[in-house]
Amino acid sequence: MSFEKIGINSNIFSALKTAGFISPTPVQEATIPQALSGKDLIVSAQTGSGKTAAFMLPVLQMLSQKPKSNNINPQVLVLTPTRELALQITKATAAYGINMPWLRIATIVGGMPYRNQIKALSKRVDILVATPGRLIDQMRSNKVSLANIQTLVLDEADRMLDMGFIEDIETIVKNTPKDRQTMLFSATIDESIARLAKKMMNNPQHIALTSSKQKHDNITQKLFYADNNEHKVKLLNHVLNESSLDQAIIFTSTKKGADKLAECLSENGFAVAALHGDMNQRQRTRTISQLQKKQIRVLVATDIAARGIDINGISHAVNFDLPMQAEDYVHRIGRTGRAGRNGSALSLVTNEEKHKIRRIEKYIGQTISTEIIEGLEPKISRTSHDNSNKKTNTEILLIEMKLRLEITHLENFLLQAKQKKK
């Protein structure tokens, strides 16, 4: 199937070929024809599946088929959870619309100067890409009107709700025309997403391309058991020195942990940087740019900060700290194996984290293989862990038997006492 066969015109198709796109991904093939027909859509798709093009190509085609608007207010609004994702969508849209020189795109996100954003909004805007919080600020200042919106896109809607943007989203939607087209993209479709869709969409068509529990067949998943964090660092150093490693993203559970680990790896000679929510926008943008240019080989990040990073060169995703939620494990390892490439997802696990591995394996429906590095063998292992579980289960059974026996003795005693009274 080609882009032309699913309805993309030759002007945009030419730009896609220049950008290196050969044929549509499954999410693009399923979504684009429906979007071109003007339907409201709820699309369940993972990051890295090509969903940006799935909603942006129909938008560009719609704009190209209409007379140039004299209205300075945007016709298309794309809401995203993070600044990084908003900037990536803007960059991708500019590439797709390279043959549309009149096209104007504005990006409204937190952490960037108000003055520049106000200046961008003072001119005609065709497509507005924004994070909810900063857009609300501009709306309250009367710097932008959404009265001309014809297409509304919510990208990574589940993450926006997780980050507490539900009220902002509802306020934004209320300020757009009711007859707009709405497309909602989310890795998962739960009750909160369903409630939101019911409020803002008109008879939406559901498209489910992937499950959040997908096995990532192109990603090799491995466990390395460690005795403590010092042992984890030694294992990590070994992994980062592998010849097969191009670039790696390492996940920590805290911002402080990300800084500390990045400093440690830097002292060990790695080109490394940290990425987390305490960094200002300039620092975050510079770090992402350095990663894209391969000026840094290793990125140490927290979950929220890494959300939306789409860099093909990341060959390894490493869980230095395991996530609390099993679903976040799937999102993390999805940072590697992008654009059909193979990837490696490695998890460093201490005895205290083993319960998280059981939860993750149950969630993804597969057992993650365990590997041992010669010279860095752990004192603990999956086998010893499983045996300890069996011992614990036996102990619980013995306790239950003792309790039952004591209850039986108590019942007999009470029965005898009752009979003596008679």
Automatic annotation (TrEMBL):
Segments forming domain DEAD-box RNA helicase Q: 1-29
One Pfam family, short name: Helicase_C
Record keywords, A-Z: ATP-binding, Helicase, Hydrolase, Nucleotide-binding
Stated family: Belongs to the DEAD box helicase family.
InterPro entries assigned: DEAD/DEAH_box_helicase_dom (IPR011545), DEAD/DEAH_RhlB (IPR044742), DEAD_box_RNA_helicase (IPR050079), Helicase_ATP-bd (IPR014001), Helicase_C-like (IPR001650), P-loop_NTPase (IPR027417), RNA-helicase_DEAD-box_CS (IPR000629), RNA_helicase_DEAD_Q_motif (IPR014014)
Organism expressing this protein natively: Candidatus Kinetoplastidibacterium galati TCC219
A Gene Ontology term for the protein's cellular component: cytosol
Protein name: Superfamily II DNA and RNA helicase
The UniProt record lists the keyword ATP-binding: yes
Gene Ontology MF, one: hydrolase activity
SMART domains (UniProt xref): DEXDc (SM00487), HELICc (SM00490)
Domain Helicase ATP-binding: start-end pairs: 32-207
